[in-house]
TrEMBL record:
Family membership noted in the UniProt record: Belongs to the ABC transporter superfamily.
Gene3D superfamilies xref list: P-loop containing nucleotide triphosphate hydrolases (3.40.50.300)
PROSITE patterns: ABC_TRANSPORTER_2 (PS50893)
Pfam families: ABC_tran
Keywords: ATP-binding, Nucleotide-binding, Transport
Record-level GO BP terms: quaternary ammonium group transport
Keyword ATP-binding belongs to the record: yes
Every ABC transporter domain range: 12-245
GO molecular function: ATP binding; ATP hydrolysis activity
Oxidoreductase keyword on record: no
Protein name, entry field: ATP-binding cassette domain-containing protein
Length: 256
């Protein structure tokens, strides 16, 4: 999301951002920049602050300290609605409304913005092709979809308004390995095709490296290392990095 008015190439910036919940530092003095058009994988164990960090970028949470900037401008309450339209957000279980069909879910925000039925249907069909969602699935309810189909619809919903950025919070976390593998391929292809700013949260280092050259590893709310998988392997910032990387064994290593 380049902003010509101030020349900032950064889509998102966190400047010494902290967020605390009841004594827990969910995000602890984090400073990070996400250049427009870049893809970044955010990894870390459960509870390390990944989801909170995304929510801070979306204005779903507000920092106790520090500043969040979007397109080079401080994020303020008055900008949040505009932001929702320009940033697609996809969560682990998809977050689809169960009482609406897939198309009904996709139509919700565009309809609110005054899009015609025709325009909504056209956009939905375009995205169904992009995400390889089979014909006919758009008329079904979320409970009638497979896990992979639900995540495809959730991704489509995030893309309906053609946002500048896509924030994905463990989008494949709930899927079985085969569907997950297939969707990893497709997502990577989609990221490359669309050229948007992407931040994808995962706790799987192989998935992180598959999606992005840049990996940001978090622990206890802090950024432990920010670099390529090779940097994490060869120049770990602290022993935890090696521990984290090695904790995810390959099949060959773990078989007898
Ligand atoms: P991750 O996504 O890496 O698993 P989270 O950002 O969800 O981590 O959580 C970071 C820490 O903040 C955890 O200790 C979690 O329990 C706490 N936390 C997150 N959201 C809330 C909340 N709404 N209320 C209280 N504690 C929270
Ligand atoms: Mg999380």
């Amino acid at each position: 999301m380049p902003n010509p008015s101030n020349g900032s190439p950064e889509a998102f910036e966190l400047d010494h951002v902290s967020k605390r919940y009841d004594g827990v530092m969910a995000v602890d003095e984090v400073s990070l920049n996400f250049p427009a058009g870049s893809t970044t994988a955010l990894i870390g164990s459960s509870g390390s602050g990944k989801s909170t960090l995304l929510r801070l970028l979306l204005g779903l949470e507000w920092p106790d300290q520090g500043q969040v900037k979007v397109d080079g401008r401080p994020l303020e309450n008055g900008r949040v609605l505009e932001l929702r339209r320009r940033v697609g957000y996809v969560i682990q279980d998809g977050g689809l409304f169960p009482h609406l069909t897939a198309l009904g879910n996709l139509a919700l925000l565009p309809h609110h913005l005054g899009w015609s039925r025709e325009r909504i249907r056209e956009r939905a069909e375009e995205l169904a092709a992009l995400t390889h969602l089979p014909q006919g699935v758009l008329q079904r309810y979320p409970a009638e979809l497979s896990g992979g189909q639900r995540q495809r619809v959730a991704l489509m919903r995030g893309l309906m308004l053609n946002p500048d950025a896509l924030l994905l919070d463990e989008p494949l976390g709930a899927l079985d390995p085969i569907v997950r593998h297939e969707l990893q391929d497709e997502l990577k292809h989609i990221f490359e095709q669309l050229g948007k700013t992407v931040i994808v949260v995962t706790h799987d280092i192989a998935e992180a490296a598959w999606f992005a050259d840049r990996i940001v590893l978090m622990r206890h709310g802090k950024v432990v290392q920010d670099g390529r998988l090779e940097d994490l392997r060869r120049h770990p910032a602290e022993p935890f990095v090696t521990q984290f990387v090695e904790a995810q064994r390959t099949l060959r290593e773990s078989s007898p």
